[in-house]
Amino acid sequence: MQDPETTLRQHDLPVTAQRLAVLRAVAHHPHATADDLAEQVRQEIGAISRQSVYNVLNVLTDKGIIRRIQPAHSPARYEDRVGDNHHHLVCRSCGQTEDVCCAVGAAPCLHAHDQHGFQIDEAEVIYWGTCPACQRKSRS
Amino acid sequence: MQDPETTLRQHDLPVTAQRLAVLRAVAHHPHATADDLAEQVRQEIGAISRQSVYNVLNVLTDKGIIRRIQPAHSPARYEDRVGDNHHHLVCRSCGQTEDVCCAVGAAPCLHAHDQHGFQIDEAEVIYWGTCPACQRKSRS
DNA sequence: GTACAGTTTTAGACTTTGTCAAATTAATGA
DNA sequence: TCATTAATTTGACAAAGTCTAAAACTGTAC
Ligand SMILES: [Mn+2]
Ligand SMILES: [Mn+2]
Ligand SMILES: [Zn+2]
Ligand SMILES: [Zn+2]
Q1: Which of A29-38, A76-85, A116-125, B97-106 has the highest mean pLDDT?
Q2: What is the mean predicted confidence (pLDDT) over B97-124?
Q3: Closest residue in A to B110 (Cα–Cα)
Q4: Angle formed by the axes of helices B17-28 and B34-45, to 10°?
Q5: What is the pLDDT of residue A85?
Q6: Is pTM beyond 0.70 here?
Q7: Which nucleotides of C are covered by protein (CB under 7 A)?
Q8: Burial classification of residue A25, based on how many CB atoms lie within 10 Å of its CB (0-12 exposed, 13-18 middle, 19 or more buried)
């Protein structure tokens, strides 16, 4: 990832303090929620409205600058690792989220046998399990 | 699926009109939302509280009698086809949901290379695309 | 059949996550 | 710098679901 200002200008987005800070927060805290990111941004620039956090996350997601994932039982999470078709591994008990390389290949998984006449454009995979920390906790 | 009353008794659940009706509604309307199901139940038995619909769906899900799926941008959906590790194909524009046999095999997909020390128990796959009806609409 | 104990159901308030709309403020380009 | 355009803020609102306490019901023991 290049610097946030360049990224914004390349996508014809006016550069604002809020956008820069949100973009930096996403880069430094992969898989964070909107709330997590708002906290980070406040530590960096003092204040931001909840609506602006959502505005910025939405526009960045629409432009493909960041990616939104929405696992069950969790608010949406964001990351700046886009375009590499990676998947996620989520802890059922604490929500910890890790990246997982696509199991099948580069632009993969798209083969559900083209079923039901759908035009498939993405295969989203979430692996559910228990993270090492939660395994230890439940054994004790 | 056997009859709802037997199912409830087998799982030591007291048999109530609400549970029977919700279970029947799930069986007749796969991938329906809690709201959809509440509507169905009301047509069948006249009335049910919102809380009861959720209570019943939760207890049935906990017992493994039904399954809950939670695609992004949609409230939770329920089905009584459990234990066969099938996946789903969801239309991005209208939400239509279809079953898809597991792409890899019977107890499949569980191989994310056991990454990050997680103990993986499920690989959830959602294929995203456009259903035939929405394809037609967007072409015209 | 009754009565009792333990569950379920109900109603209503509440929480979380996110959106909408109008007024204010800030960024860009001339 | 000014005008134009776009972004930010504020506050209300919405959807989906949970929490709680009171009322109603189910299963079981007499
Ligand atoms: Mn990721
Ligand atoms: Mn299904
Ligand atoms: Zn964990
Ligand atoms: Zn569709």
Answers
A1: A29-38
A2: 74
A3: A127
A4: 120
A5: 81
A6: yes
A7: 7-12, 16-21, 26-28
A8: buried
In the predicted structure, residue A104 carries a pLDDT above the cut 70? no
Q: What is the pLDDT of residue B109?
A: 55
Which residue matches tokens 């946030």? A4
The superfamily CATH assigns to domain B84-139 is Ferric-uptake regulator, C-terminal dimerisarion domain (3.30.1490.190)
Domain coordinates in residue numbering, chain B: 4-77, 84-139
φ/ψ of A59, rounded to 5, equals -70, -40
A106 CA: distance to closest CA in chain B (Å): 15
User: Could you tell me which CATH number the domain at B4-77 has?
Assistant: 1.10.10.10
Residue from B28, B76, B73, B69 nearest B54 by CA = B76
Hey, which of A68-77, A117-126, B127-136 has the most confident mean pLDDT?
Answer: A68-77
pLDDT digits (tens, 9 = 90+) for B111-122: 656 689 999 888
b/e map B12-39, b = 16+ CB within 10 Å = ebeeeebbbbbbbbbbebbbbbbebbbb
Q: Residues of B96-132 as b/e, b for ≥16 C-beta within 10 angstroms?
A: bbbebebbbeeeebeebeeebebebeebbbbbbbbbe
The answer to whether residue B12 neighbours chain A at the CB level (below 8 Å) is no
**Cβ within 7 A of any strand C atom:** A 9, 14-17, 33-35, 50-51, 54, 58, 70, 75-76; B 13-14, 16, 18-19, 47-52, 55-56, 59
